[in-house]
Design brief:
The protein is mostly helical and 132 residues long. The chain has 2 domains: 52 residues, no CATH class; 59 residues. The chain has 6 helices and 2 strands, in the order E-H-H-E-H-H-H-H. The protein has a two-stranded parallel sheet with strand order 1-2. Helix 4 crosses helix 6. The chain is elongated.
Length: 132
C-alpha cells in the first residue's frame, strides 16, 4: 500500500508488518506507520524484503503485477535517451535535445522528489493493479 494511503489500512485488530524493498522507506516513516497501526501490534521488517530473501525465507512473487514504477522510469528514460542520441547521430543533431530534456527531467526529479515520468507511467493501463 502506498504511504499516502496508509491511513486507509484495514487491520481488523490483527498484527501488521510494514515492509519495503530495502527497509529504508519504512525506517524513515516509522512514526507515520506506527500512527496508521492505531494501537494494533505492528512490526517493521528490518532490511525490508531484500533482507528477508537474503535470509532465504519464503516469499511469493505475484508475476501478474506490473514492474515497480522506478524500474519503469529507468527503462523508459533509457529508451528515450538512446533514441534521442541515435536520431541525433543519424538524422539531425536537433534530436540530441530529446536526451537533454530527459536528463533535465531526471535532475529535477532528483532535486525535488517529484518525477513527472513516474506520475505519467503510474496512470498507464498496465499499472492498474489487479486485486490480489
Amino acid at each position: 500500500m502506498p504511504l499516502d494511503r496508509i491511513g486507509d489500512l484495514p487491520h481488523n485488530g490483527r498484527q501488521i508488518i510494514f515492509h519495503c524493498k530495502s527497509g529504508m522507506r519504512t525506517t524513515a516513516n516509522t512514526l507515520q506507520l506506527e500512527s496508521a497501526a492505531d494501537g494494533v501490534p505492528a512490526c517493521i521488517l528490518k532490511g525490508g524484503i531484500d533482507a528477508w530473501r537474503q535470509a532465504r525465507l519464503p516469499t511469493v512473487v505475484d508475476r501478474s503485477q506490473p514492474l515497480e514504477i522506478m524500474r519503469q522510469v529507468q527503462i523508459t528514460a533509457g529508451t528515450i535517451v538512446l533514441t534521442g542520441v541515435l536520431l541525433g547521430l543519424i538524422v539531425s543533431p536537433v534530436f540530441f535535445g530529446i536526451s537533454a530534456f530527459v536528463g533535465v527531467g531526471l535532475m529535477f526529479a532528483g532535486v525535488t522528489g517529484w518525477c513527472g515520468m513516474a506520475n505519467l507511467l503510474r496512470v498507464m493501463p498496465w499499472n492498474r493493479r489487479s486485486k490480489g
